[in-house]
Amino acid sequence: MPEFRHSNIEREMEVYGYDSFVKSHCRMCHGGCGVIVYVKDGKVAKIAGDPDCPIAHGTLCTKGLASAQLAYHKDRLTYPVKRIGPKASGKWERISWDEALDTIAERILTYKEKYGPESVVFGYGTGRENEAVIYRIANVLGSPNVITAGHFCYGPRICTSIITCGTNPIVDYENFPKCIIMWGNNVTISNPDEYKGEPFSVALDKGAKLIVVDPRLTRPAARANVWLQLRPGTDAALALGMLNVIVNEELYDREFVEKYTHGWDPFVQRVNEYPLERVQEITWVPKEKIREAARLFATTKPAAIQWGVAIEQQTNCADNDRLLMFLMGITGNIDAPGGQVLNRTPNVVNVGQFGAHGMLPKDQFAKRLGGERFRLASRFAILQPKCVWDAILEEKPYPVKMLFLISSNPVITRANAKEVYRALEKVDFMAVADFFLTPTAELADIVLPAATWLEMDYVGDFWKRHGYILPRRKVIQVGECRSDHEMLNDLAHRIGQGQYWWNNFEEALDYILHPMNTTWKDFKKMNYIRGEVKYYKYKEGGFSTPTRKFELYSTTLEKMGYDPLPQHREPSESPVSTPELYKEYPYILITGARQPGFFHTENRQIGRLRELHRDPIVEIHPDAAAKEGIHEGDWVIIESRRGIVRQRVRLSLGRDPRIVAAQHGWWFPEKKDPGHGWHESNINILTDNALESCDPAMGASNIRTLLCRIYPEKKASYEKKE
Amino acid sequence: MSKHAIIIEEFACWGCRACEVACKQEYNSVDADNGIKYLSVWPDGPKLMNGKLDFVWRVNVCKHCDDPPCAQACPVEAITKREDGIVILDYDKCNGCQLCIDECPYHAIRFDEEKKTVTKCNLCHHRVDKGLYPACADNICLAHCIYFGDPAEIEQKILEKRKARGGWGDILPKVITISRG
Ligand code: SF4
Ligand code: SF4
Ligand code: SF4
Questions:
Q1: If you average pLDDT over residues A603-621, what whole number do you get?
Q2: How far apart are CA A454 and CA A67, in angstroms?
Q3: Looking at the complex, does the CB of residue B51 fall below 8 Å from at least one CB of chain A?
Q4: What is the pLDDT of residues A357-380, one digit of tens each?
Q5: How many Cα atoms sit within 13 Å of A501 on the Cβ side?
Q6: Rounded to an integer, what distance in angstroms lies between the CA atom of residue A486 and that of residue A30?
């Protein structure tokens, strides 16, 4: 009997007769997992995890395993097209890359000339490892406007961590935390930036205690030692309550607090404004549970907080992030083995340098849309999307004439989707780069065929803060598709930026790697490069903040004119802030729980992944359903002040009866009309993007917590469709 | 003869469903957008268990029983148990009568409308016989909870993990009791 060995490449090659294999780095999400791609007859034949990958250790998710079905999808756009009918008419004509890029270049130069470079807005969705090239082309052009998800996704962690402790503290799973708080995410089925589920799972198997903060009963919540089932949007109050316990029971790390923090006394004062009785009232979490969780976290060493995006898509975005860092900090877990490490990235040209932020002239920086209002975001080149929609629709404070959106589908993913749609309908000229003709792309003038990760060379995870870079190696070419990096490098030459770019993108990769005296050709042969591993670095040089301390009291926010201490703010719509509205819309709607197989709006056309979730699902407690005359499997209408959508009901005991949980990212590629059902189940039809509802410092849209009503869709009531 | 079993410790499963897609990859061509698979993951709960809300993921897959009731039910002897423990459904012999389906206590057999035969997991025997792990058990599971190998050794591994967790997951996967039965 042969000996069994996991991921046995040689035998796999022999048994299946593959021609070759390439080790690469998946990017079906933000990236991260090392993969082995087997090739036969020039095509991808199989994708497996790479056990040598230091991040996921050879495990993979549904999306990674279905990458070839994305690459070879029959509906994929494989050549550039230009629209020949009105917007959203679905009338397209094939054009050459030269024609496409020349047209885009000509538009950029014309608008720059007539309205200034700020009238040309570049954009991407969530981080897809193209952010550095996109910022580069915008900054060199002189446009301060790059529209991203950064205002409410990961950007806040970067901005707030830089002002608090110098960089984003990353859970050190390698040294097995003994207590983990999973706060507002589920890393086992999603990918909060630096993290994959495997190391988290292993840490639990090693005996780590688990605290889960989530309004929904996820599997991790069911497995947790303590589940804090909070009222949505009250994370800050909950964290303040836990800090209150830790401070008043003196469970904090005395040495850390005394030597390395700034602003302890005012911080304690603020924390004392949140006694547990008050916190219980705000959060709906019993005070005994808050105390239990705070004690468990503060007295188990090392401990860490597995955080993610849910706390950022709220009015309290920046303070939520800061409060979680304070929990890590005052318990002495910052930069501690098994705690939360301020990693050193390998010595490469970093994303900020590559993004050429230094080249944006000061007077152009000052023109960043919304920059005066959302000052923390603006400092880090992040803007609030509504400011762009307003500039298109109302031409205030100046007109935006052109959008170039790369890997972004804002019609589905940004708050108040109807307004987004109107803006994209109105904008003078729009170019889009994507895999498919999405509802957003259907409004474009030119659509460019983007390469999947299987079709590009890149320095993977170059933007992350876990301390690794990993080579992504090109395996195949599909049609005329090009990577975002290659197309922008080409376009840059056509708008006169040639001197700041490269003859081909491989030279750019060499540039990224040059501080290490490494070239792409050398790096390609490696599994990964890791930055120097060192703990407690602050003990020598302090933290990289204005005070060199861990800033509980933010001197940066103070200078910007914000409250330097964190506080709880009620969501703009809630039973507390708008009791009258709550009578009319008697449920709290939460959105965006992740589904395996999908990445926001992506993958709904991939049969193997769509099979996992055919319909958009809204979860509702059986008691609430009975009250509303709703049954399992019904199509129902969910309504907010801004509109209505339909989703299908799943009854679930795993949430408070006052809460309804709807899925996000839905459109229907199988609907062949050019709208592709963009408004039918798209939860962002219901969300609010008023600037007043946003986080005051980051401009994060509050898309996670609003008020709704829910009722049966007349026709469909209790007729189960299978 | 070494024993071959597939055991999934459902306590540890996170419902990521990668195993389902890995099975699909193994049994369908790369150009097939979708296709067959032999296991399915489903949410059991949230539900009230002894007054407490609980929620686990279940993975339906053939348990390769010691005394497989499906084999007994089959009139044309399409299902047989190999010496190494793998219960094989011979697709050429299956006449589509579906008598086995109801007999399987784990709902691991399905009817394939296109092929007009039943289908079930044959434990990737084409891989196993060549010294490869079954597709779903080949280190893709982030929970490392899909075990392949000798059932006694697997049981040992699961007990060790349970101890390390501090007693969590004290329900052993059902298959162990069945395969002893
Ligand atoms: S791969 Fe593992 S964790 Fe994921 S669904 Fe399958 S058994 Fe569960
Ligand atoms: S009865 Fe079910 S689980 Fe047991 S061997 Fe047959 S198909 Fe597999
Ligand atoms: S052992 Fe093979 S056939 Fe059976 S479920 Fe796993 S991948 Fe599918």
A1: 98
A2: 8
A3: no
A4: 999 999 999 999 999 999 999 999
A5: 27
A6: 19
In a 3-state reduction of DSSP, which class is residue A567? coil
- State how far the alpha carbon of A717 is from the alpha carbons of A625, A637, A710, in Å: 12, 11, 13
pLDDT tens digit string along A644-679?
999 999 999 999 999 999 999 999 999 999 999 999
Read off the tokens for A172: 């050190």
Supply the CATH classification number for the domain A81-153+355-452+481-498.
Answer: 3.40.50.740
A181 DSSP assignment: E
Distance in angstroms (rounded) separating the CA atoms of residues A243 and A279: 11
Identify the residue whose tokens are 């408070």. Answer: A656
Neighbours of A627 (CB within 10 A): 12
B116-136: pLDDT as tens digits: 999 999 999 999 999 999 999
The CATH number of domain A579-712 is 3.30.750.24: no
Check residue A721 and give its pLDDT.
43
Residue type, B69: P
C-alpha Rg value of chain B to the nearest Å: 17
Distance from A433 to chain B by nearest Cα, in Å?
Answer: 23
| Per-residue pLDDT reduced to its tens digit, A215-249 | 999 999 999 999 999 999 999 999 999 999 999 99
Residue range A635-642: average pLDDT?
98
Q: Which amino acid is at A385?
A: P
Chain region(s) in chain A for CATH 3.40.50.740: 81-153+355-452+481-498
CATH number of A169-341: 3.40.228.10
The boundaries of the domain holding residue B143 are 5-164
| pLDDT tens figures, A128-172 | 999 999 999 999 999 999 999 999 999 999 999 999 999 999 999
Q: Which of B8, B26, B136, B145 should be mutated for ligand 1, with most atoms under 8 A from CB?
A: B145
Partner-chain residue, chosen from B33, B47, B140, that has the shortest CB–CB distance to A59: B140
Q: Are A320 and A236 in contact (CB under 8 A)?
A: yes
Contact A642, A685 (CB under 8 A): yes
User: Which protein residue's CA is at the shortest distance from atom 2 of ligand 2?
Assistant: B104
CA B62 to ligand 2 center in whole angstroms: 5
Which atom of ligand 2 approaches the CA of B63 most closely?
A: 3
Among all bound ligands, the one having the nearest atom to the CA of B87 is 2
Say yes or no to pLDDT of A12 above 90: yes
Does the residue B177 lie in any domain? Answer: no
What's the one-letter identity of residue A593?
A
Is A201 within 8 Å of chain B by CB?
yes
Cβ–Cβ under 8 Å, residues A317 and A156: yes
Which DSSP state fits A693?
A: G
Helix/strand number for chain B, H first, E second: 6, 8
Residue range(s) occupied by CATH 2.40.40.20 in chain A: 579-712
- Measured from the Cα of B109, ligand 2's closest atom is 7
Is the alpha carbon torsion for A337, A339, A344, A345 positive or negative?
positive
